[in-house]
Amino acid sequence: VRAIDVTMIVVGTRPEIVKMAPLVRAFKERNLPFVFVHCGQHYDYNMSQQFIEELGLPRPDYGFKFRAQSQGLQTARILALAEPVIKKVKPRNLLVEGDTNGTLACALAAVKLNVPVGHVEAGLRSFDLRMPEEHNRRLVDHLSTYLFAPTEVAKANLLKENVWGKIHVTGNTVIDAVMQHISLAEKKSSIMKRIRFRNFALATAHRAENVDDPVVLRNFAEAFEEAPVPVVYPIHPRSRKRLRQQKMLGKLSRSKNVQLLQPLGYFDFLVLMKNCEMIVTDSGGIQEEATAPSIRKPVLVIRLSTERPEAVEAGFARVVGVEKKNILAGMEQVLEKSSALPAESPYGDGTAAKRIVEIVMHADIRK
Amino acid sequence: MRLMLVVGARPQIIKSAPIIREARKHDEIELQLVHTGQHYDFEMSKVFFDEMALPEPLANLGVGSGSHAWQTGSMMIELEKTMIEHKPDLVMVPGDTNSTLAGAIVAAKLHVPVAHVEAGARSYDMRMPEEINRRLTDHSSSLLFAPTKNCAKNLGLEGFPKKAVKVSGDSMYDALLQHVSAASKTDVLRKLGLKSEEYAALTLHRPENVDDSKILGRIVKAIMSLKLTTVFPVHPRTRQQLATTSLLAKIQEADHMKLIDPMGYHEMLQLTKHARMVFTDSGGLQKEAFWLHTPCVTLRERTEWIETTVSHANILVGSNPEKISRAARRITEELDVKMRLRKIKNPFGDGHASQRIISEILKSR
Question: Is the Cβ pair B132, A164 closer than 8 Å?
């Protein structure tokens, strides 16, 4: 195989590793050459390595291991680090996932070297420009040659913006990932032994616009304390710090209705999702994972907007905002509601990665 | 309001000059001019600042040239520090260079609103780094100043809300009107021994034309074979590439070829105005030729200034020798081509784009 046939697959954050894992496997199964790049920050590097190993993925061929505080600096550093690697490898194309600064920086470095970029999870829009992710994904969509839209909604967003690349609706690789990982997770995780409650809601909150706002943070803490069903809350370090600063951490941790956990690994989290009554979250990816056939859980989105309208339309998710009374009312409604959730996920049937690989391969042959 | 204006490359300084002049008329605007040093450091472009009568920049980042990602990344690092220090209320980025994109991304990430001057230009050729810069800058901006209606239409197709897009006219046209009389006072024609309308002007700098010496040779030979007196202000990168083959010597030996160093703004305007035709791969020169009613032969496959191609005022020929000579013949054979071009309606505004831009910015507060 000539070096020029190589596809470069880039990951940085954990969600990116999860969502690219099915793609890496699909490349391996077909014996297609690829170079695997981890563009994450230094402090995250060893944790990511361990995670990659747990998922049974190959070691990344390149890791950037940089340190940067601000959003701009992160983007700038990765941009400068990615370029020499792309120049050296000369990949036929480069695949990025999602909407982080690393996604943008690697895609921008590639396109400026005339390496075609494929964007996995293209076309997501919250239409909320305060979110740095919204800016990143929009820019990546506008520089990509291949846009792998998870749904028709995402495709419609891209058409409305007259993107230059070709749009393919593939489904979301996150469903592939859940289906590929759930049995491994149940084997490896013992988290259920540590949970105090038989029936519980699973809560997460990490978004800056939520946890950095003391009013919103208090709404969340009080809603969890007063919830109609006990709440298991794996707590993100950022949220823990903020709760402590606002003197809310003590009360929350003493609440009989709440079990706080340290941040969880992917496997533990999958198992908790599978065993909970409902999920209360401000995360984007969890809204999708909850719809996978092996999870199928109702989700309350504690945000003002969502870039995942498909989960809402299919009846899995509801945006309840950030007010305490709305969150509590939402939880009550989920408990009362008896109608079953749909059997199928709006994010595909778990074959997104296969489709993406087919498209990338065909594009190469045609050239 | 604190208005930060980020410039780096020469054409950006030209299109910013009228905006700077207009901004200085308003006491409520505190102008923060930042020079990234993309093409030249400030010392080297000082001549240029003097020619345009511009104030000294508040900050000179001195980034210098390098690969795209390195340059963009380095500028982002410096621009972020500058923005954090000077706390602009709005960051204005003109054009489509790496400085433009770096300024837009950094500002957007700091949640400072971005205004893009020259928004919505599209060549739909993604191999051009400028096309990527333009698109991504537009999608980082909340205020988009389109130089023409067509540019505004392009933005509409990309889903921008109508109220974010303002058809302002082109501030580069403002600059041309403000400087054309100073340009006519230069003695560049006499200095080079040229007679009005009896010569052609040639500029070449784009990587796709210059980096491959075969393509460069093809273009230059095609133009030399026209036997037109041709002034060739040569870009340093182009000179370097010409020197790798015997081409540089051949140009220097040919009587009808006048190889000269790059020129200042005034001299270049005067040269363009009096040329029989212009051969170029630059974006800005296509427009300047159009405004000065000089026929343009563009050495590119596509242009983002599609407005200039009406009535064959600008003919796209790529690097094809056949097309180059056909276009040149067409122009030389037409009796009073400039008179005809003078009648074409100018879609780039009325020379008051900078007033509109500044007044919209004041309204946006």
Answer: no
